[in-house]
Amino acid sequence: MRVAMIGTGYVGLVSGACFADFGHVVTCVDKDASKIERLHQNIMPIYEPGLDTLVEKNVKEERLFFTTDAKEAIADADAVFIAVGTPSRRGDGHADLSYVYAAAEEIAELIDGFTMIVTKSTVPVGTGDEVEDIIRKKRPDADFAVVSNPEFLREGAAIKDFKIPDRVVVGTDSERARELMRELYRPLFLNETPILFTARRTSELIKYAANAFLAVKITFINEMADLCEAVGANVQEVSRGIGLDGRIGNKFLNAGPGYGGSCFPKDTLALTKTANDNNTPVRIVDTVVEVNAARKKAMAGKVIQAMGGDVSGKTIGVLGLAFKQNTDDMRDAPSLDIIPALIEAGATIKAFDPEAMEEAAKLMDGLNYVENAYEAVDGADAMVILTEWDQFRALDLERIKASLSSDIVVDLRNIYSPEDMAKRGFEYSSIGRP
Q1: Distance of alpha carbon 159 from alpha carbon 182, whole angstroms
Q2: Rounded to 5 degrees, what angle do the CA atoms 157, 161, 167 make?
């Protein structure tokens, strides 16, 4: 099949490359000429493990193309995917759908013959109806179907999630579109991946509901971590104890400084906005949003407390800036709340992240970006771990201890053992553990 992918951001680029690897011919379209030029040089606009190799392979085998000209890509396509950004709208937290609607306007002008238009972007319930109306008004004669096909990609594991997904969700009432979607995802059918066909509005809501539920799990275990600290319990053992219950599961039960990234913050806000607009408030999710925001701000206080209640004039070595490992994504990262608060309290920050420093520098001033973890802690009064990169799990702790001017380590990801750190002579603080 011939596929046009509108947008070469995280979702569009990963999806386009994976569809090409399935054997389809995919043209990724973006208005940013410099981004397209870099893609022609196999320079990725995002960090995602294995993506550059996958793109290079499929470009070489002439299944994956990049262009700024949508005309030919859309006119020849059997399926046109909308994979543009839907950031939180300033003021009310609702999803900004201007890019989606602009894409629909452009697609309407260019489709030729029966075309399946698939919304891959995360959008509120009813967006597919609006996309269909836009195209129908512009092209009453057009033969098309609008389909919802939400993505469930984890940053850092996106290629695996696309190729070996838990499920694929397709929302449409068009049998013709269902057949095309079956053909697109045929390699997954062969692997017996569950593919759920449902109504379009149901499909749109599934994505928001899934992310909100996962955000609830994260926020729940973070609050349990606070309780564990108060009563002398161990949150990791609590997490394991409840996670072994098949009704709960162990995923997303790792205590930390709060969730961030491209999905959970904006999707929970958009869901609460949609619910309030329909007079059915989702109070659990409202509370999750509030608790998560407060938690990220409170983590600076945890660091300050571990350093004796005053960081004025002190240097802190920070390891990790991205919201999670294996990505350079800084959107709503806890570091964006924690580091400015520490600087405001008088601390000097030396920071290292394997991939996110370039993005972080666009968002945070007043800190020193260094070349590696050991440079970050050299002469520092404390080491603070904000992101659980694998390389931070295997640091030379004797070298760390010798480099620090004191022995304070604040581990907001629980990647080290309190007992082992105590034996090594560190003043070690973590999340929800005695």
Answers
A1: 20
A2: 155
Q: Which residues does 212 contact at the CB level (< 8 Å), separation at least 6? A: 267, 268, 271, 282, 285, 288
Place of tokens 């196999």: 42
pTM: 0.92
383 touches 314 (CB < 8 A): no
Contact by Cβ (8 Å): 314, 381 = yes
Tell me if residue 263 is catalytic: yes
The conformational region for residue 309 under phi > 0 = left, psi -120 to 50 = alpha, else beta, is: left
What is the per-residue DSSP string for 350-417?
Answer: EEE-TTTHHHHHHH--S-EE-SSHHHHHTT-SEEEE-S--GGGGG--HHHHHHHSSS-EEEETT--S-
Domain that holds residue 153: 2-197
Assign 318 a pLDDT band (cuts: 50, 70, 90). Answer: very high
364-396 pLDDT, tens digit each: 999 999 999 999 999 999 999 999 999 999 999
Q: Which residue has the tokens 């449409």?
A: 172
- Average pLDDT for the chain: 96
299 plus 157 within the same structural domain: no
| Residue 309 scores a pLDDT above 80 | yes
How deeply is 286 buried, as exposed, middle or buried, from its count of CB atoms within 10 A (0-12, 13-18, 19+)? Answer: middle
How far apart CA 20 and CA 134 sit, in angstroms, is 29
Residue % of the chain over a pLDDT of 90: 97
Which tokens belong to 224? 């349990």
Which of the listed residues 197, 228, 263 is the one where a domain comes to its end? Answer: 197
Helices (H), 25-163: 33-40, 51-60, 70-75, 98-110, 127-138, 158-163
CATH number at residue 160: 3.40.50.720
CB 334 within 8 A of CB 260: yes
> d(Cα 365, Cα 370) in Å, to the nearest integer?
14
CB 118 within 8 A of CB 132: no
Per-residue pLDDT band at 398 (split at 50, 70, 90): very high
Q: How many CB atoms lie under 10 A from the CB of residue 301?
A: 14
What residue type is 352 in one-letter code? F
> How many domains does the chain fold into?
2
Maximum CA pair distance of the chain?
75
> Is 202 a domain residue?
no
Within its chain, how far is the Cα of 324 from the centroid? 9
Q: Which of 18, 28, 228, 263 is catalytic?
A: 263
Q: CB-side exposure of 234: number of CA atoms within 13 Å?
A: 8
